[in-house]
Amino acid sequence: MVRDIVVYPDKRLKTVSKEVEAFDEALHTLLDDMYDTMRAKNGVGLAAIQIGVPLRALIINIPLEDAAEGEEEQPRENTLEMINPVIVEKDGSTKFQEGCLSVPGIYEEVERAKHVKVEYFDRHGEKHTIEDDDFLAIAMQHEIDHLDGKVFIEKLSFTKRKKFEKEWKKRLKKI
Ligand code: CO
């Protein structure tokens, strides 16, 4: 089921989400709804708090580059579901132009670690480790920030942030 997205500057986005304790049907429904919502909005990632649920759960689905015409670019089975993720290693630095379903239409360059190693649980409570030094590394850092109540625009320089806030106020009036 597609749910409503929490849009910046809604205070819920500042919530530090709580650890998931039960890997049950309710969690599976939440993850399924997160996928439906992310696809409906053409996103590549979503944290539970972005649909108003303060739990440490996120999904990432990087579109396939080699999908044939008419083929699903973000099949459900390609979705990386991360419960209670923790960054256990990070190094290097890289810049990437990020966007966020909670700040629709805004794309800004953000600096993050180049390489991260993350420990997390899947929907059944099995523990996994994943490492990346490409787009997935950036996506994981962006989504884990949401679990800690942080949105990517907070990483902008003072001047860029001021410009963004001004622009965003204008846009919100139109929505
Ligand atoms: Co986001």
Observed structural traits:
two-stranded antiparallel ribbon, Peptide Deformylase, binds cobalt (II) ion, alpha+beta, 175 residues, five-stranded antiparallel β-sheet
Please provide a written account of the structure.
With 175 residues, the protein is of the alpha+beta class. It has three helices and seven strands; from the N terminus they run αβββββββαα. A five-stranded antiparallel β-sheet has the order 1-2-3-6-7, sandwiched between helices. It binds cobalt (II) ion (CO). Cobalt (II) ion binds next to helix 2.
Supply the CATH superfamily name. Peptide deformylase
Shape: globular
Query: Which strand order does the major sheet show?
Result: 1-2-3-6-7
Tell me the number of strands: 7
CATH topology: Peptide Deformylase
Radius of gyration: 16 Å
The CATH class? Alpha Beta
CATH architecture type:
Alpha-Beta Complex
Overall tally of structural domains: 1
Proportion of strand residues: 15-25%
Query: Which ions, cofactors or small ligands are bound in this entry?
Result: cobalt (II) ion
SSE topology string: HEEEEEEEHH
Name the helicity range. Answer: 25-40%
Structural class of the secondary structure composition?
Answer: alpha+beta
In DSSP terms, counting alpha (H) and pi (I) runs of 4 or more, how many helices?
3
